[in-house]
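help with this record:
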Amino acid sequence: MPAIDISPKQDGGILKEIIKEGVGDETPAPRSNVTVHYTGTFLDGTKFDSSKDRNEAFTFKLKKGCIIKAWTIGIATMKKGEIARFTCAPEYAYGSRGVPPTIPPNATLLFVIEMIGWTGDDLSPDKDGSIEKFQIIQGKDYLTPYEGALVNIHLTGMYNDKVFENRDVQFSFGEGEEYGVIEGVEKALVSFRSGEKSRLKIKSKYAFKDVGKPEFDIPPNATVEYVVELKSFEKAVESWSLKPDEQIEQAKIFKERGTNYFKANKYNLAITLYKKVTSFLEFSDSFEGDLQPERNSLLLSAHLNLALCYLKTDQNNEAKDSCNEALSLSPENVKALFRRGQAYLGLASPEVAIQDFEAVLKMEPNNTAAIKQSAICCNLMKKQLEKEKKLYANMFDKFAKEDKQKEAEKLREEPDVMNAALGEWGQDERPGGRDATEFEKENPNILMLNSDNGEFKNM
């Protein structure tokens, strides 16, 4: 196949010649993680680099600044399995500087590249590939949505190439669950620019988990795909742009919405709203006079509610931290102490939890919930103690057996000498060095010492 000019300006700076056709129609999107084999030569055929010589494929992110311009443009045109030759002018390679001493200034380079494959841009929090993004249309400017922004998106959801939803949806960023937007889509949206369109591959942990979506014929633990277009978004109200009294009013709105979500058992959404309350009220120096106690009351309530939501979702470390924040505002707060005790129980630390429940009982001796939780702690500690005693007993028995075994092995390794208690000799050894008789070998334990003459005789 003849070489074609793929340079943006059609200036002949990047010529591509396909040696072997690839499969399918898809090519890697910007920011994909691409894996290739390549060989680089000068125009005279002199090789300067080759991944094949190292027997090690080259993996890189397809974005500006990570690789030379010719690769950024050329790799984006390749299909899986394709092999192509690229002729790269200096301005699309290493320019007038080169890479001394390997590549001289103003060098035109030839690369034969084999496309092995690629994965999407990994947007998952744990970088485990559970949310992959493949950009289709690049967005405008550099602004991306953040918590609280009003976003307007179009969703097309697919499972096994079958569309299960296709709709426009508008919601406050962070509250997508209320509108049927899965967690993986929201997490991906923080990387979208206005007008961007991308395909998302989302594993079950950020989609429909181990429940699935029966109404969409999606089974448990299914990986789904979405094509998402961020049509527009409006900035959220930011705390720094408001006066202290306005911050308090906005925090009240967040708290009320959070409580509504809590009552509807939508704990993750409630957490999102209560965290907004704390973010608007975190700087105490901003609130003076009568605003200070009102701010402290709202903040205390938010931390207590966060702790309860975290307990409901089995996030015990986070619950403990929220209780500590509440106790910094109100050191003898019964709810904070009780919920922190519950968090410690959830963290399998009954010996610490009981201290919080006992602190509650000092202030409220008839608190039945604290009495019950304290009893649970005592029971758990008793069981733990019994378990430890049994463990140590087994451990000591094991050590004793090992010691006996070692002693027995030591005795077996020592020479067979006369037993002082029985007056026995080794079966094949006799005074004077004589050999044992057949009778002595067969009856080793009946040799007696004649006390008259010091000689042994058979009895």
Observations:
- The longest helix spans residues 368-413.
- The mean pLDDT is 89.
- The CA atoms of residues 365 and 371 lie 8 Å apart.
- The longest strand covers residues 109-119.
